[in-house]
Amino acid sequence: MITKFSGLGYSNSNGIDYNKLASGNVSSARYLSRLASAESRGAIIMLKSNLRREIYKISKSGGDESQIKAAVARIKNVMRKADEKIIKLNNEKRMKERIKQEKYAEKREEEQCLSKRYKSKVYNRKQSERLNVVRAAVCEEKQIGESEYYKAYTDAGTSETPSANAAEGNMNTSIDVMI
Length: 179
Fold this sequence. Notes:
It is built from 7 helices and 2 strands; from the N terminus they run ββααααααα.
C-alpha cells in the first residue's frame, strides 16, 4: 500500500520513503544483517530478488543521479556478498558430504580432521559476516555525519528549506535524519 509520508515523498506499508532512499540514505547494514541471518541458498536468492526490487524502486524515485548511483552501488555490493555466501554455503555442503563419506569408509582420523576444518570454516564465515555488518554501519554513520544535509540541521539548527516552506505558508513539513 502506498501512502503519503510527511509531505516528503511516498512510502510503502513498511515505512520506507523511496525518495529519501534516492537521496543516499540507503543502509547496507540492514541488508547485510539479513544476509548474515540467511542460512539457506533459497533465503539468499529471495534476499537478492528483494534487493533487485529495491534497486528498481530507487532508480525510479527521481532523486539526484549521483545519490542514486551511490545507493545502487551499496546494494550491488550486498548482492556480490550474497553471491559469495552462496558459493561458501555450497563448499560447506560438499565438505559435509565428504565427512559423511569418510564416516562410512571408517577413516576416523581423516573424518575428524575434515570435521574440524569444516567447523572452523563455518565459524570464520559467520564472524566475517558479523564484521561486515558492523563495518557497514560504522562507515555509513561516518558518511551521514559528514554529509551536508546532516550538517545543515545539526550545526546551524535551521536550514533554508524549512524557512522557505514557512514563508510560503506550508507548515506541514517533517524532518527525518537517519543516524
